[in-house]
Amino acid sequence: MKTRFPIYQIVIVLVLIPILYQDSVRNYFFVPFIKWILPSGFINISGNNYFVPAWLSILIIQCFTVTIISAFLRVNKLGLSDIGYNLDFKRTLVFITGLVFIGFIFYFIKTQIGISLNSLINNSPIKPALYSKGEYIFWIFYVPCSGICEEIIFRGFGINSFKSWGLSIILCVILPMISWFSIHNFDSFGGIINGVIYLGLNGILFSGLYLWKRNLNLSIGLHAIGNLMIIMI
């Protein structure tokens, strides 16, 4: 890629917006507003009335970031296809539908057959994150959209933005991965060590697949399926 991404674009996408993301998650920055505009019935699908607003606020920030990236790419005379996302709107919907179907398969296995990862792994450090039927259903539809956004942000934009400055491929993978790490709560992985290992291995895998295939489809699919596996915990 001959076009060099301006430093301000890299800072906004990989530094400033993740800070906003963390503020949203830790301090529920957008939650009161989202709770105000959402029907109470939608919020009450979870026993925790922060569950839906908090996760929706995260998705809003992710979609906003992808919109910013699209604008930056146009400024650079590029498009999403230049950073590996080559699905049009129709194919994106088909892709999301397929992932949602996989999510419902996991849900059926967990709730109807009674098989879970914790039932197969003794003394698992990972605790369930979903507790009600509403949370399961919400998660099934949330994850594919979030997976698409994260891969566009941290693999598509992240890797290519640093490559445009001639950095080594190792740095091009590691620097966006650090930004990606920053938006996750390590407690949900059973601690910092488990979180770093899990996210590190996944980040290397997703980055490797993207660099190998030169598109984000496979990394998005695996990323989403990995997050849908949370249903099985």
Overview of the molecule:
The protein has 233 residues and is mostly helical. It has one domain. It contains ten helices and no strands. It has helices at 7-27, 31-37, 40-43, 51-75, 89-113, 117-120, 133-163, 169-182, 192-213, 217-228. The chain starts with 6 loop residues before the first helix and ends in a 5-residue tail after the last helix.
Which descriptors apply to this entry?
233 residues; mainly alpha; 10 helices; 0% strand
In short, what is this structure?
The chain has 233 residues and is mainly alpha-helical. It is 71% helix and 0% strand.
Write the layout of secondary structure elements.
Elements (H helix, E strand, L loop, with lengths): L6 H21 L3 H7 L2 H4 L7 H25 L13 H25 L3 H4 L12 H31 L5 H14 L9 H22 L3 H12 L5
**Counting H and I runs of at least 4 residues, what is the number of helices?**
10
Order of helices and strands: HHHHHHHHHH
Low-confidence stretches: none
Distance between the termini: 41 Å
Shape category: globular
Average the pLDDT over all residues and give the rounded result: 91
Structural class by sheet pairing and helices:
mainly alpha
Overall tally of domains = 1
Strand content: under 5%
Question: What is the radius of gyration?
Answer: 18 Å
SS elements, strand count: 0
Helix proportion range: over 70%
**Main beta sheet, described?**
none
